[in-house]
């Protein structure tokens, strides 16, 4: 029986006159019912007074995040570096499966930032986010070329996470102003290399003013990372709510239409073979159909997918890459950004009185469903296009295993094992989350929109670190 562990929270305030502190409200949380190494979003009703408190709570056995100066660097200390590599060595596969890896981010400096104040200066600070972990640098006042020289460390729970670094301008009177942002998939990071990243706009669709210099190191256990790919992603709680956008709705409709059109065109092609529009093609299709049906075995399904992945891989390494940059998606994202700016101005003028909330919620639901449907089709395509090589290799390993299993083991035994696992899952692990391993795998593959957002923009040659050093010497 678990021992109850309660966390007590109190909200205090000061009176209008004087400095006397008064108790406004409070609440309690039973930590024993929360699972470890997972971020929980809790909405707690306040016991005294009105309202509720929203908390993000993570129970962990070790410090998952830390901030230090550039002089205090874990990876430069040889003893600590060896300890970190030992922690994520292949021999420690089954030791704390949720601790996949280690991330160190050096936020060095930024150059040429946007001026947010009337004086032509900014008060920039930097926010570094990995899923629900969020750390901040100090603010450098009245400076467009700030130097932070801070080191952030994170524990990686999912190697397919995206590191987000956002620069804001501090404003004491109102919320901070956005200056720029970059999103960097962990699997695309080159260890120990100081790079200048061009800052992008809020939607990550185009450049804004300034660059930021980062040096990032990722150390992870590949086997743990592969196993974690087959469980649900950690839900990110710190993100903006969806809002209705005509351009976004149109974009998601077009993306869904493109995926559906692939199936429709395939159906037309098959039907043209039935109609003998091209006798040689129809004859070849007929012979192939007879051969496949007569010799078909269940193991051939993953084998065909395996051959398709292998074929695309050899096309890429031979220089015959059939992947094309999706300019249509990029154009739609740019149009969406312009519309967002226009909507912001219109909303300031009109306010919220004229909005019809019920219709808006329905439209947002349709918008999100279209986005999910389009993203699913694009993720399947990007798996076979080797957009993320780690995931494509993982798919090859899985398909090889499935092919061998289906070849040697009768289908009834496979279904029997699958059914027993599903029926006894809640009995073996009452707090287990219902999931589909295939969908969990596909959720790690970026959609076409995410591919565009994660693209690294080329910085101005004048921002090169090497050139900067030469200029300083001269």
Automatic annotation (TrEMBL):
Q: Which GO terms describe its molecular function?
A: calcium ion binding
Q: InterPro entries, from UniProt? A: C2_dom, C2_domain_sf, MCTP_C
* Residues passing through the membrane, by range: 283-316, 390-418
State the Gene Ontology BP annotations: regulation of neurotransmitter secretion
> What's a GO cellular component annotated to this UniProt protein?
synaptic vesicle membrane
Q: Where would you find this protein in the cell? A: Membrane
Q: Which UniProt keywords apply?
A: Calcium, Membrane, Metal-binding, Repeat, Transmembrane, Transmembrane helix
Q: Give every C2 domain span.
A: 78-199
Q: Give the record's membrane topology.
A: Multi-pass membrane protein
Output the Gene3D superfamilies linked to this UniProt entry.
C2 domain
Report if keyword Calcium is assigned. yes
Major localization class: membrane
Would I find Metal-binding among this entry's keywords?
Answer: yes
Q: Which family does it belong to?
A: Belongs to the MCTP family.
Q: Which PANTHER family match?
A: C2 DOMAIN-CONTAINING PROTEIN, DYSFERLIN-RELATED
Protein name stated in the entry:
Multiple C2 and transmembrane domain containing 1
Q: Which organism is it from?
A: Myotis myotis
Q: What is the lineage of its organism?
A: Eukaryota, Metazoa, Chordata, Craniata, Vertebrata
């Amino acid at each position: 029986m678990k021992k109850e562990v309660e966390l007590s929270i109190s909200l205090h305030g000061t009176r209008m006159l004087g400095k006397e502190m008064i108790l406004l409200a409070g609440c309690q949380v039973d930590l024993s019912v929360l699972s470890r190494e997972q971020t929980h979003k809790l909405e707690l009703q306040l016991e005294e007074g009105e309202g509720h408190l929203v908390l993000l709570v993570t129970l962990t056995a070790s410090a998952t995040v830390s901030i230090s100066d550039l002089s205090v660097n874990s990876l430069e200390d040889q003893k600590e570096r060896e300890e970190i590599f030992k922690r994520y060595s292949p021999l420690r596969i089954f030791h704390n499966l949720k601790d996949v890896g280690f991330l160190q981010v050096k936020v060095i400096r930024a150059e040429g930032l946007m001026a947010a104040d009337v004086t032509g200066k900014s008060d920039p600070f930097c926010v570094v986010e990995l899923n629900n972990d969020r750390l901040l640098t100090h603010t450098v006042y009245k400076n467009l070329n700030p130097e932070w020289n801070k080191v952030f460390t994170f524990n990686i729970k999912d190697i397919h996470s995206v590191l987000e670094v956002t620069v804001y301008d501090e404003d004491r009177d109102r919320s901070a102003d956005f200056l720029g942002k970059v999103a960097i998939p962990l699997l695309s990071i080159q260890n120990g290399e100081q790079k200048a990243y061009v800052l992008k706009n809020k939607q990550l669709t185009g450049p804004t003013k300034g660059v930021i210099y980062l040096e990032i190191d990722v150390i992870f256990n590949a086997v743990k990372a592969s196993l974690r790919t087959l469980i649900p992603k950690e839900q990110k709680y710190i993100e903006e709510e969806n809002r209705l956008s005509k351009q976004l709705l149109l974009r998601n409709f077009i993306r869904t239409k493109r995926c559906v059109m692939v199936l429709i065109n395939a159906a037309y092609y098959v039907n043209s073979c039935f109609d003998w529009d091209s006798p040689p093609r129809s004859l070849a299709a007929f012979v192939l159909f007879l051969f496949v049906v007569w010799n078909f075995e269940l193991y051939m399904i993953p084998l065909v997918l395996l051959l398709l992945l292998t074929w695309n891989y050899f096309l890429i390494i031979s220089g015959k890459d059939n992947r094309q940059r999706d300019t249509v998606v990029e154009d739609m994202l740019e149009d969406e950004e312009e519309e967002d700016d226009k909507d912001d101005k219109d909303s300031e003028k009109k306010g919220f009185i004229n909005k019809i909330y019920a219709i808006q919620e329905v439209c947002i639901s349709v918008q999100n469903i279209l986005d999910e449907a389009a993203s699913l089709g694009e993720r399947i395509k990007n798996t076979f296009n080797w957009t993320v090589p780690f995931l494509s290799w993982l798919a090859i390993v899985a398909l090889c295993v499935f092919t061998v299993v289906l070849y040697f083991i009768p289908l009834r035994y496979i279904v029997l094992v699958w059914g027993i696992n599903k029926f006894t899952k809640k009995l073996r692990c009452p707090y287990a989350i219902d999931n589909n391993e295939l969908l969990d795998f596909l959720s790690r593959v970026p959609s076409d929109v995410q591919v565009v957002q994660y693209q690294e923009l080329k910085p101005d040659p004048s921002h090169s670190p090497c050139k900067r050093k030469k200029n300083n010497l001269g």
